């Protein structure tokens, strides 16, 4: 630089007080229902030895849901510290997580106290807990179905000793192992994607505590499937009232014993055609030709908000529900009120029907995005406001009237439309004009059912580091050039020593016509003299 540079800024020249989230690590690869640890590095400037007493709160959240929080001393932040947060991802898909640290009095900015990260939660394998009350044909075929699915990690238990059996020998004299109810229903329950209780009653010891753990698991996003039989749903004992908060079915008005046995013709009620689970035309075709079942558990019917997907009986008025699904909190539950569904798997003609019903049911209960007939993907998970976003839409055969809506999350956690609805094409392009969390949602019709899918993306600027918002680059430039940084209110031009004015000539260039040059005059005179001489000698005029 030819001279010193003086920076006049609005803040004092000393480093202002500021706390920032320098980095967030541990969100690169998240597996569904595997504990994730997030390491947040905190930096601070301007605190020094006068750091205020107290503690700061670091919060990890997903939208309006707080996943974890921790507290750290302000004095530790002044020296630089790392805070570890942990949470359990529930359900695959894209998320926008936010890490925030509380501010201190006098902090110059809070823009760098918040950091958002776009993460993808993947599901490597479907962890399934299958517990059967006794060996049966239905238990055998269901267990074989789960074992042959390559994407299922199966943990299976089945009881070989009846609950009312008279035991004369000790546990040391048998090869049977005690059922680890405490481990699977309390300690390790959050590690399962779906729990299947097949004709099984919870152990009488600590039954209420096990039931409370299962209810909390479902309400937090878990999946529960209960399969009936001769041991449960009032067939051998009382109705399972301890699990009633998560059951989509109401027990019979009067206690019953046993099951309804005989020819049970299965059909799909009209309301099932509007459910995404049975929107497949092939499944509906096979159900119309399905062989009858042999037994069914009796019930009063579905709870309000639950959907009956399969019924049994000759007429709808006299039919009984066989398959009911519902939503409880953030999770989903279903009941199969029969133990003879295995007849479909036993018949080679309808083995595909057995597989399709269970495939669709498990995908629905576990929120499997790959099973949706319509899919939507934002090509840029994170972009800067002003850039173009490209949204790709794909749909299965038979899916129609697909439209796309782009929504932006408000401060209250509510999504409001900013684009659309527009007719779905292969790609949809639009320019994001503001920062925030956006959701692209595609919806359509499959048969008589409404289907939808969504994807999240983030529009945000690069995060600010601690102390980088108040003129630190100006101070560096001033020091290198011999200047300095001065507060705007205290600036005095008499104290600014500028270099004296120096005029220097680098080069000179003048453009003149050629006939103004003396040499041109001499050349012309010489030519005229030569011409006069030649004319005198030759006599030619």
Attribute tags:
541 residues; alpha+beta; Immunoglobulin-like; Rossmann fold; five-stranded mixed β-sheet; 9 helices; 18% helix; elongated
Overview of this protein structure:
With 541 residues, this protein is an alpha+beta fold. It has three domains: 17-122, Immunoglobulin-like, CATH 2.60.40.150; 126-169 and 177-367, Class I glutamine amidotransferase (GATase) domain (Rossmann fold), CATH 3.40.50; 372-459, Immunoglobulin-like. The strands form eight sheets. It has an eight-stranded mixed sheet, with helices on both faces. The protein has nine helices and 30 strands. A hairpin with a 2-residue loop joins strand 20 (320-328) and strand 21 (331-336). The chain starts with 6 loop residues before the first strand and ends with a helix.
Silhouette:
elongated
The CATH class name of the largest domain reads Alpha Beta
- Described by its quaternary structure, the protein is single chain
Helical content, roughly? 10-25%
What's the N-to-C terminus distance? 72 Å
